[in-house]
Amino acid sequence: MKTRSARLAVFQKYFLAIFAGLLLASCNTIRGGPEPDTLRINLGAEPPGLDWDLQTDSTSFDVVSNLMTGLTQYTPDLKCAPGCAQSWEVLDGGTRYLFHLRHGMVWTDGKPVVAQDFEYAWQRLFNPATAAQYAYLYYDVVNSYEFNTGKLKDATQVGARALDPYTFEVRLKKPAAYFIYLTAICPSYPQRKDLIARWGEHWTDPEHMVTNGPFMLSKWAHEYKIELVANEKYFEGPPGVKKIKMFMVNEQSTAFALYENDQLDFVDNRSFSTSDVERFKNSPEYHNVPLLRNNYIGFNVLKKPFDDPRIRRAFSLAVDRSVFPKILRRNERPAYCWIPPALAGYSRDSEVQYDPVEAKRLFAEAGYPDGKGFPAVELLYPAREDTQLVVEQIQDQLKRNLGATINLQNEEWKVYLEHLHRDPPAIFRNSWGADFPDPQTFMDIFTKHSGNNDTRWTSDRYDQLIAKASGDQNPGERAQLYAQADKTVSRDQAIIAPLYLATQNAMVKPWVSGLEFNACDIQFFKHCKVTTSTK
Hints:
Blueprint: H1 4-27, E1 38-42, H2 58-67, E2 72-74, E3 80-82, E4 85-91, E5 96-101, H3 115-126, H4 144-148, E6 160-164, E7 167-171, H5 179-182, H6 193-199, E8 215-221, E9 225-230, E10 243-247, H7 252-260, E11 266-267, H8 274-280, E12 286-299, H9 309-317, H10 323-328, E13 333-334, H11 356-365, E14 377-382, H12 385-402, E15 406-411, H13 413-422, E16 427-433, H14 440-443, H15 460-471, H16 475-492, E17 496-508, E18 512-513, E19 529-530
Parallel strand pairs: 1-10, 14-15, 14-16
Antiparallel strand pairs: 2-3, 4-5, 5-7, 6-7, 8-9, 9-10, 11-17, 12-16, 12-17, 13-17, 18-19
């Protein structure tokens, strides 16, 4: 049965299609061009929300990352530079961090950004009533797990507190090599207790939201457009553009047509179909960037028939990953294990190679020779043209190599995410992009307490491996531990079937400068500039 949100998404999809059609029709007579001091992009979908304690998706974070600044902030090469904290100290063998906040940094309503804003934000992140899916990322903080799971009721016992208005202390249970990265990403951003208390779930509405980053939220026309405007009070000075218009056109071909008609200044994979990449890959406007993003098929191990690891392994072995770069044609690379080769912990021993003969043997051993008796299952995927190409190829390979019938079901982005987190289907297509350049960001999502573990698989041994790896100070030993864990999820238990490592494919108009790309695919627009001349 369709939920109300699903019916609304369908209605809004047709509304957007009509709007985009009218916009394109007008371009036939009046071609677009640059808007002074305005960057126009396509988000591709409605963000599920802008409360950074509740969201985990890149669409929401692409908006929030331009509204907010954390204790630290990423440089283009993914190093941590001072943000709200002008400096920090690492003490007590790596288990205590002191962040010294800069004086004079203010929220958009003029109030100072103080350490108490971080104390409140981190306590809210761990508060079980918040139900933050990303709380587990910060479980190395003293008493964070205990408070988040209700074992501890006193929030003041959590190891994240304001020592004074400009000193924020974080105490860890053990050293964590990656911890400083966590202070640059959305879940760690400060929040205003007074505004959340006053406005409740509406605190992110444009008329209520107060931010501290280079931009502030001006408009949010749901399923149509978000507008950001420059924050003149930003501590680094005003950003390079005065306004960002973020449209929500789901259809890649429609969005790219808007780019071709000079009504969008920047498009990425969300707006760039395979056929368009083929046409424009030699254009000076084209950019191709390797990403730390693994696309995969996930199995809900609590649902039959995928409670049997032989079925999961058979599905994974039956997929020829080499075809995905050929059909997508964007320099993707086949993924044979979970950790990307660019990160420590990648190992050839973790890889799953294409082996249809072994896949058939396992399938028969599990009781389904040549697919006989295997129930038809639905593969859930987010509605997007390039994703459809991938799942159709998987559907064909599983039928051909195993005799398994797989039906395809797509949903709009918000509905898909809600479905996946609420009640994951037996099989689904998903992707995971690194929040920070460390193997921990890939491996801890399959731990027992992860809010992003949609496979529902748990293993005490696996959790112990990840806990040990996260605190190991020897890089070689740490890499070996992650490799063992990867072999578990990719080969032995096959709770996922890795498919391919993504690239970001973007087109940028010649009148746009200062747009920077990174391997985590986090989009920051504060350095962008738009000129009014196309020459």
